[in-house]
Amino acid sequence: MKEIFVRLDRCVGCHTCEIVCAVEHSHSKTLFGAIAEHPTPKRRLFVEWVAPTHKLPVLCRHCEDAPCVHACISGAISRTPEGVVITDEDKCIGCWTCVMVCPYGVIGRHLETHRAYRCDRCPDRDEPACVSACPTKALVYRTVDEFSADLRQEAAAEMLAGERG
């Protein structure tokens, strides 16, 4: 299963991922259309400032043993066969239990619709919108093995460059 990984060394905190996420989850699928929509489309990831020089996009990790799935009293939260944790907005009653148990604090409360929302990894796309739009490629959509191999290759290249320099 593919995951969204964050390359902290590349994130500049531009918030492009947040904007594109909200637009992707709007009815119009355009920036200017999304701005005028009601209910307001919401972003499903949040760029947090961790330290003066570090930014961190935070989003649903689709936990293997997701506390939100177990806590949802209406049965609105489930897992797809691909392992993505999703919320059925038609079943959500807005009790916010999932928000309270999320260890990452990334389930949002849409107060206009009284529904919970989270990253759904853009199921209608080959790659999540946030990953495609990231100008610095800080967001990466890969399997754990692919991402680990990429990091090992980069570390080896840096080590060789240091020996030659």
Provide a concise account of the structure shown.
With 165 residues, this protein is an alpha+beta fold. It has helices at residues 16-24, 31-36, 67-71, 97-101, 129-133, 144-164; strands at residues 3-6, 45-51, 54-59, 77-79, 85-87, 108-110, 115-117, 139-142. Strands 1-8 form a two-stranded antiparallel sheet.
What's the SSE blueprint?
Layout: E1 3-6, H1 16-24, H2 31-36, E2 45-51, E3 54-59, H3 67-71, E4 77-79, E5 85-87, H4 97-101, E6 108-110, E7 115-117, H5 129-133, E8 139-142, H6 144-164
Antiparallel strand pairs: 1-8, 2-3, 4-5, 6-7
Q: Which key features would you list for this structure?
A:
single chain, 165 residues, alpha+beta, Alpha-Beta Plaits, 2 domains, two-stranded antiparallel sheet, 6 helices, 8 strands, 20% strand
Explain this structure:
This protein folds into two domains: 1-60 and 125-165, no CATH class; 61-118, Alpha-Beta Plaits (2-Layer Sandwich), CATH 3.30.70.20. The strands form four sheets. A two-stranded antiparallel sheet has the order 1-8. The termini are far apart. With 165 residues, it is an alpha+beta fold. Strand 6 and strand 7 (115-117) form a beta hairpin. The mean pLDDT is 93. It has six helices and eight strands; from the N terminus they run E-H-H-E-E-H-E-E-H-E-E-H-E-H.
